[in-house]
Amino acid sequence: MPGDATKEIGQEAFMRRRRAVHGWLLLTPALVMLSTFAFYPSLATLWTSVFSRGTRRNPSEFVRFENYQRLFDDPTFWTVVQNNIFYAAVTIPVSIVIALAMALWANAKIPARSFVRTAYFTPTVLPMIAAGNLWLFFYTPGFGVLDQIGAFFGAPSVNWLGQPETALWAVCIVTIWKEAGFFMIFYLAALQTIPPDLKEAAEIEGASRWTYLRRIVLPLLMPTTLFILVNALINSVKLIDHIFILTKGGPSDASMLILYYIWENAFAFFDAPAAAAMTVMVLAVLGGVAAIQFFVIDRRTHYR
Fold first, then answer.
1. Can you give the three-state secondary structure of 154-213, one letter per residue?
2. pTM above 0.70, yes or no
């Protein structure tokens, strides 16, 4: 009998080890990918940010937080930060509102509904470079589409991308046009999961369309809105294609955004420590904002 008990204990221990090994084998591909493309680059970037810019004659040295201090003392860096905050404050809410409106319309019983959905989603499937060149044709002064329309009404020619007052607004419009259709797909999928019984019950109670939208639809769409908000926030700090095609950060840094500034420091000025310091700060800010979204906003979100 004692031998049987020992045998059972041994079998249980063997099964536990087998399950543990099986679990680690399932996690290994994800761990390898994350370590290669996320964890190691992040640690390498943090390590680079605390060293000076090295040359053949003067190798890099450990300088602690001097690269961060140099960025805080750089007025161009604060201009870029202000540009990115303005860019996010404009593109994120406007894209979400337009995406919701398009999804509500595309989900309604309207003629040619499939064509409407396809038309809304078409900008999303265009490559970023192609979309940038398309809008470059729209914005070109003199013979661009916008100037041609303005000339028809007697308006003067406007250099949309060559003026500090309009350059960043022009980039925002391109982003909204590109992202609204992408966000619409998520809202459309969420709308199709709402039971039609809720709408029928609201109509029986005499609720108006606005009341039904505000009291039922929008709360049920909050998980989707949170997901879209996180994606829009990430997109707001990773834009580089449109800037490279349309403005290259000009004029006078009026449309310079953080990722393009990081690229410029790393590959144009060959200042890898400054680029690494900016990258670390961007990751820290995104992590903090994401934590607020998930621990504060997520608690007020209704999941079904």
1. CCCCCCCCCCCCCHHHHHHHHHHHHHHHHHHHHHHHHHCCCCHHHHHHHHHCCCCHHHHH
2. yes
